[in-house]
Amino acid sequence: MPAFKFMAAALLLSTASAFAQTPTAGKALVYVYRTPGQYQALVPYSIYDSEKKLVTLPHSGEWAVLDADPGEMSLTRRYPVTMTITSPSGVAKTTSGMVSSRPLTLQVAAGMTYYVNVETLGNNKLIGLRTEAKARKEMQKCEEVKATGP
């Protein structure tokens, strides 16, 4: 039992220390995260600002923090799909592509921090802005993924 208590405390401390970050001068922080155990848990989600790939969150229960320049961000979540369609004559055709969420537009201000849940919400097309309190609660069991860009 003591080992479990230690692991739980370490997890809470690691998430808490993530929230202790402050934006770099002239920048904002944008946390993007996936809540654990959700639909498509093993499907990698790539997060884009317009057409620029920012980070990939490989699984649910992961998060990353991004340094953002002030101005407009148009965030989308994209993930790969493969479909096989069989014609009445029995000929199968497989196609692959990417599914994209509707964009979430943020007006990012220097010195501010934003929290975006990129998990499947509602009709599978939405990503949502969260308050810090709600994000802290949703991210308690999440692990950090380092933002490496494209």
Could you explain how this protein is built, in words?
This protein is of the alpha+beta class and 150 residues long. The protein has one domain (2-144). Helix content is 17%, strand content 47%. The protein has helices spanning 2-19, 132-139, and strands spanning 28-33, 45-49, 52-57, 62-68, 71-86, 92-100, 104-108, 113-121, 126-130, 143-144. The strands form 2 sheets. Strands 9-8-1-4-10 form a 5-stranded mixed sheet. A hairpin with a 4-residue loop joins strand 8 and strand 9 (126-130). The longest helix has 18 residues, at 2-19. The radius of gyration is 18 Å and the shape is elongated.
How many angstroms separate the termini? 42 Å
Number of domains as seen in the coordinates: 1
The rough form would be described as elongated
Main sheet: strands, sense, barrel: 5 strands, mixed
Q: Give the tally of β-strands.
A: 10
Draw up the topology in text.
Blueprint: H1 2-19, E1 28-33, E2 45-49, E3 52-57, E4 62-68, E5 71-86, E6 92-100, E7 104-108, E8 113-121, E9 126-130, H2 132-139, E10 143-144
Parallel strand pairs: 1-8, 4-10
Antiparallel strand pairs: 1-4, 2-3, 2-5, 5-6, 5-7, 8-9
Quick summary of this structure?
The chain has 150 residues and is α+β, with helices and mostly antiparallel strands.
Q: Could you name the key traits of this structure?
A:
five-stranded antiparallel β-sheet, alpha+beta, five-stranded mixed β-sheet, disordered N terminus, 2 helices, 150 residues
